[in-house]
Fold this protein.
Amino acid sequence: HYLATGKLACVYMQNSGQGNAVNPLASLADPDVYSIPMLLVIGWRGMPGVHDEPQHVKQGKITLGLMKTLGIPAEVLPETTAKACACVKRLLKLAVKESRPVAIVIKKGLFDEYKLKNKEADIAKEKREVVIEKILKKLPRNAVIVSTTGMISREVYETRVRLGMGHEKDFLTVGSMGHASQIALGIAKAQPKRPVVCLDGDGASIMQMGNMAIVGQSGCKNLTHIVLNNSAHDSVGGQPTVGGKINLARIARACGYRLTSGEDAESPLFVEIKVAKGARADLGRPKEAPQVNKKLFMKTLGA
């Protein structure tokens, strides 16, 4: 946008996105390279002193420090309108004057809640939690699951509880959005006789789509990659993805996946299931710490 107009753009992300943004911020936008001004708007998950999910704890602690390390001027957005406007104007002026990225950090709960749109289009689709239950009931006894971060892992956990099952066969990925398929691939390659299922989301799979190319060319026929597609980022408020506008199955096929279990191919299986947006308001969270989940899971794998 800046290259085409000479005006700086606004880039919004949750602070977990800082990890993905470090490379372009340091190697392209920095004043030592192309010196590209922009306003970063960063949602502060895991803010010290505020209870949050385990995957946000470390990122919350280093949010401001990371900006300092990158040499990006950053301020926490004040809670009053007048002070907030002054803060933004001050940072915008600095961004333009020094032709550099600047950042405002937003405390959790400061903005209004996002309202889901196009709910009527979901009427014919099954709820994600219902689909997850059907999948869990049909899995072979020795199968293990790697579920992506956010609502899907929470629903896997809750479904196991509801069905009276244990959690030892599930690796509930926390954080690391988009990398569940790579975790599943590592397990599938190490234990080729064990069925491994990756339960992924459309937002996560799109975020790190390069992983599909690696999985598709892996030759791991014991790996099944299931994308539960609701065309939304459910875990961060329901903002839309492009999941409903692209053909994930054709992309997977081009990467080397097979699309039906009947195909005779030395390649992983890809399944896309369209599901409704949203989750239960009373959806619980795993009660065990991630380290406990890891040890139970590794014991199941015999590691």
